[in-house]
Structures are given as structure tokens and as C-alpha cells.
Specification:
Blueprint lengths: L3 H24 L3 H16 L16 H5 L4 H6 L12 H20 L6 H10 L1 H24 L5
Helix pairs in contact: 1-2, 1-7, 2-7
Length: 155
Amino acid sequence: MALYKTHTKLNLLICLPITLGICVYLLQTEPRLLLVFSGCFIYGTLYMSPDLDLAKSIKLFSLRGFLTLPFRGYSRLFRHRGLSHNLFLGTATRLGYLALVVLLFTYFVLKIPYFHQDVWHCYLNNKPYFQYGFLGLFLADAFHILVDSLTPKRR
């Protein structure tokens, strides 16, 4: 099991440039979509990784601790290396949890009601951006899980 710094270095210095190269060469992606992909990949590597199930143990009064604040409850719901380390469900559970937190916050704290039609129209009007954003998060998770599976567990 690799350390946070190891995951960060491998993802940002090796995996991100390779995946960006593939997007440019094979998919001929437009620059704005590459920015969305890169931003989500970086965010997924630094703050929304499969190890968010350990968010409750990160020092709250730090940049990383502050940015993982919405996931403090998530880390109490999921055990380490459980569902959050599942290749297909991990990213989806974290995105679903984050969406629920945002919707509850905006509805109960900011008093802004959401209607599912508004969210659906926003998705339809910006579909490629959502898809590249999800791809960035998913690939950051996939590389994290791959590195975890290739490194021996620490004792």
C-alpha cells in the first residue's frame, strides 16, 4: 500500500501527462475539455482519492483537511479499502456523496431549492464537460488503485 505522497507523485508526474497525451493524440480533444479533465484529475488525486475513507484522520486545520471537510461523514460510513477502493463504484459513491452534501447544504443552509429538471438541463447543455470531468476523476482513482495493488502492504 503506497503512501499519499507516492500516489500524488505517480499520478501527477507520470499518469496525468500520459493520459493527456492520449486525449490529444487519439481523441483530438479541444483545450477546454483538457482543462476540465486535468483539473478533475488533479483534484481527484489530491483531495478526492479512494483514501477519502480516512478523511476523519486528516488534520482539519490544513489545506488538505479543509478541502476534505465535506467527506468527514463519508469516512465514517465507509471502511478503509472497502467500497471506495472499488474501481467501478468508488468514484461514483464519492461523487454521489458530494452531490448529496452540496444539495443539502444549498437547500437547508442557503435556502436555494433545486429542481431535478434544472440539474438535468445543466447536464445536457454541458455533457462533454461532465464526461471529461468524470473521466479525470475515474482515471485518477484507477491509477491509485493500480498502484495500491502493485505495492506490498506495509506492516
